[in-house]
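Final report, Chapter 2: Outcomes

The project's central promise was a pipeline that accepts a single protein chain and returns its three-dimensional structure in a standardized token representation, suitable for archiving and comparison. That pipeline is now operational. To close this chapter, we reproduce one record exactly as it appears in the project archive, with the input sequence first and the structure output second.
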Amino acid sequence: MSKNAGKFVWYDVMTSDTKAAEAFYRNAIGWDAKDSGKTDRSYTLFSAGPAMAAGLMPIPEEARAMGIRPCWTGYIAVDDVDAYAARVKAAGGAIHRAPEDIPGVGRFAVAADPHGAVFNLFSVPDGPESPQIAPGTPGHVGWHELHAGDGVSVFAFYSGLFGWTKAEAMDMGPMGVYQIFAIDGAQAGGMMTKAPQTPAPFWLYYFNVDALDAAISRVKDAGGQIIIDPMEVPGPMWVVHCLDPQGAMFAMVGPKR
């Protein structure tokens, strides 16, 4: 088993305007960007310092026809995408895009949990493991949050597939229980039942920043929106929820305002 199995290893944003989105994230998050060099698809690579952090691509035509809007998606590492695609379906989830190869990169499939939250399965050819990014490194994802169809029952789906375990659970009153989950013993994110006004279940990804107020200013100056004001959370840390100019939702987390 790869030491990355069951972990989030990549993230990308599908968008309606790749040039505008690239400019936004360069300014808002501070990423560098370069074309992937793939001849069969348009794909931009974002990096934070020397390390790759995320990708950007146009919404595929078939997804656009289905009404898919700009959004971020996370990739979970598995040893065998085809086998895990079958396991996803057996556990009540769905496969929206059958396993296929990305030449020279790896193999992936687009999956969804039983309530419809989308994630990707991903495997890479045998070779050196990717370097590990220190927790809290600016420009990289620091937290994964599932706004679930049912936060209680969906945990069994992910735990059964990827071996995630329960950590602390926080009672948020009318908002329900916030269940923190751990991957290989390290806290990686949280799950909760989505708010009634949220149209559909989804995964939200938090990008690490040094300080929240400066990051918020960059988001606004680059044309983004703040949709949930800064909040202090256990850690202590500060978080904020945002939309990019094309409408993709993301969040930011930092140790101070």
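Archive annotation: The chain is about 20% helix and 45% strand.
This record, like all others produced under the grant, will remain available to the consortium after the project formally closes.
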